[in-house]
Amino acid sequence: MKTIRHLFRRINYTSIPVKRIQCEHSIAHSLRISPPTGEKKAEALEWNSALKMNNLILVNEKISRLDDWPVNLRLELLYQCAPQPKLRNQNQLQEQQRKYRLKLKKAIESERTNGNVQAADFLQQIFDAKGYVSYSKIEQFSRLPMQRKNQRMNMLKTYLNAHNQLRDRPCANAVYLQEGIFKIPHQWDVNQNTLDLEEYMRFTEKFLKAHFPEYPILAIVGHDDERTPEQQTGHHPHYFLSGKNAETGEYDLHKRQIKVVNAFIQQNYPKDELLPADGKLTRKQSKVFGEYFQKMARDYANEHLFDPKELHVELSPEAEKKKKKRK
């Protein structure tokens, strides 16, 4: 069994402007295209253009050569992944949505109490809706018996105005997209005969589906051009994971990942303290979360990828010393 090191890094992007631009640049880098906003100077030897035909991309569970994707399709994928620009009046709309959501809830209770069950059920459906709600609902609602009709109609119009504009826009500090990188550094001499790029990408897909099945994998890009032609090592996947829960519509990836890490702690380190489930971590807790996440990914990679190949990932002695010193 050969002991190696394995790099695993996560980067969370929110929808605030500076993070959105960073995200666009990073996705553009992975897709080997120019970023659509801002200027970025290409670093020397960032990748080897002579090897670009080796790069792969996984979208909708299918792997193809990145070189076969025209620039316009890559740019379209970038816009599908990256956070949307903030609306000019987004803060006001969010406050409007919050206030009128409370009004909607009170109206449902009031109409039900007064026997207007149809009106209450109709408003409840709109209250529960996650996606776009047609404005034709306003006219449909007007035909139902209810209290204070004009007031109820204005309430519904105002709520839908805010809801439909904000339906796919998380709050500014929510994780919109997570990028992750798995990589074995060159010095460990693991080449494609031992672990090929497509297998590495499929492992990444398996890891994400096993731990975060509710969050869509938007793309996994496999790079094999960040090396010299003589080197046969250094190939690695980047993943782009949506922060939006496909089942609930909530941007709650951070909380979900804390929940998964807590389950890992309970199972493997039952005496250790769990992390706050509300997602509000101190700086110290964030470091602890990162360490357990790394451990979880390392254990999974050993079991499902490396051990069967007579490879085993361990934490470097220097990192282990730092970890013990922090504790």
Helix content: 40-55%
How many whole angstroms does the radius of gyration measure?
24 Å
The best one-word shape is elongated
Q: How confident is the prediction overall: mean pLDDT?
A: 89
Strand content: 5-15%
| Total DSSP E strands | 8
Biggest beta-sheet profile: 6 strands, antiparallel
Topology as H/E string? EEHEEHHHHHEHEEHHEH
Low-confidence stretches: none
Description:
The two termini are 30 Å apart. The radius of gyration is 24 Å and the shape is elongated. Helix 3 packs antiparallel against helix 4 (117-128), helix 3 packs across helix 6 and helix 8 (253-268) packs across helix 9. By secondary structure, the chain is α+β, with helices and mostly antiparallel strands. Strand 3 (56-59) and strand 4 (62-65) form a beta hairpin. The strands form two sheets. A six-stranded antiparallel β-sheet has the order 2-5-7-6-3-4, with helices on both faces. A two-stranded parallel ribbon has the order 1-8. It is built from ten helices and eight strands.
What layout of secondary structure does this protein have?
Layout: E1 2-4, E2 7-13, H1 17-31, E3 56-59, E4 62-65, H2 71-81, H3 90-113, H4 117-128, H5 136-142, H6 149-166, E5 177-183, H7 197-211, E6 217-223, E7 236-242, H8 253-268, H9 283-306, E8 311-313, H10 317-326
Helix pairs in contact: 1-2, 3-4, 3-6, 8-9
